[in-house]
Amino acid sequence: MGEISNAMIILAILSLSFGWLLGQFFKFQVLFPAICVVALIVFAASIALGDTALQTVLKLAAAIWLMPVGYAFGQILLHIAVLMRSRRKVAAGLASLRARRD
């Protein structure tokens, strides 16, 4: 039973990480094909490892559910980074205007 939980934790971390990478670098349209590819890979790996039907369904559900969560997290971090970068530019512009006045 310990091997199953370790495999599920690794699958969850990889799904979140892959979703996060997609969220950082790609648009939303790439998410559905990526989920399909990951689901096929998880399904094939489950068959190759001889998992039961319940284990296969749980692994598929975890991968399919956690990738969009990771994607959303990646998008949130991307927007925060853009906001921080734009605030720095505005602050630098205001500082140069104040320096010109003095």
Describe this structure in words.
The chain is mostly helical and 102 residues long. The chain has one domain (2-74). It has helices at 2-25, 31-49, 53-101. The longest helix has 49 residues, at 53-101. The radius of gyration is 21 Å and the shape is rod-shaped. The model has no long low-confidence stretch (mean pLDDT 83).
The pLDDT mean sits at 83
Number of strands: 0
How far apart are the termini? 72 Å
> Based on helices, strands and strand pairing, what is the structural class?
mainly alpha
Q: Helix proportion of residues, in percent?
A: over 70%
Uncertain segments are none
Q: How would you sum up the global shape?
A: rod-shaped
Q: How would a crystallographer describe the biggest sheet?
A: none
- Specify the oligomeric state: single chain
Instruction: Give the number of helices.
Output: 3
Count of discrete structural domains? 1
What would you report as the Rg, rounded to the nearest angstrom? 21 Å
Portion in strands: under 5%
Give the SSE string: HHH
